Amino acid sequence: MSASNGKKKYRGYLTWxxxxxxxxxxxxxxxxxxxxxxxxxxxxxxxxxxxxNVREKCNVDVxxxxxxxxxKTFDKxxxxxxxxxxxxxxxxxxxRNKLVIHNEDAWNRYIEKNKAAACYxxxxxxNWDAISLIFSRDHTATSEDVSAGAENGQEVAMKVAEDFxxxxxxxxxxxxxxxxxRPGPPMLTQSNKQDRMKRFRTKDALFCMSGDIKNSFQIxxxxxxxQEEPKTACPKEIFxxxxxxxxLARDDLLRAYCxxxxxxxxxxxxxxxxxxxxxxxxxxxxxxK
Length: 289
Description:
Number of strands: 7
Strand order of the largest sheet: 1-2-5
Strand content: 5-15%
Largest sheet: 3 strands, mixed
Number of helices: 11
């Protein structure tokens, strides 16, 4: 480590402090709200602004590579935690900056299929509101859904085979009068009957499983397709509306912003209320009341 112009200079790996994270995220939130965060990443001038802000406020000579690396870390946190929080039994503690697990059995089942999530049981993630706002994504149709689809396919296949077995015609009875006898399907020997059942179960089980897995796979692939985004309210409009609410704390504003930018309906509900009721309604939405 060397010094230049009074600033700490680092090469390679950089340890980020809370103040450095705050300086970086302040810039990213501002430019995210301005539409500078595209599907292809940040526009070049955002990195310039981020580097300058961290340098000036924290007296650390960071580079664009440092900022890009930190953004990857934030994106990883948001991806893993975002998936966790879509499941029942887990929520985020805003005060302790930690995951709250209400159902230990559900957690054990989840990390059994998602090994990378295990370390987040006790991990402290500060600035979650800003991170989730900037790096959030849709977490529908995960690999768990495909696995569940395959299991459902097996259940369907087994039931089809059982139904077929229960309804397989037996040999016609000759104990009654000949006038009541009605010809049935050709009689099968026990060997042929078992062979026919085996062919049916194998063929139809594979058919049912492949159909169900195909549907689950299509759901999973659909989540990765580029889809036309529905028309949403302008982030600047939402942010301006929140700033206009008297005495709304900064953290509450960010939490509300995160909710409203993901739901046009909620923003419409907010704007339908008189100004003196908006703050109370928002506090209810973010769980403060």
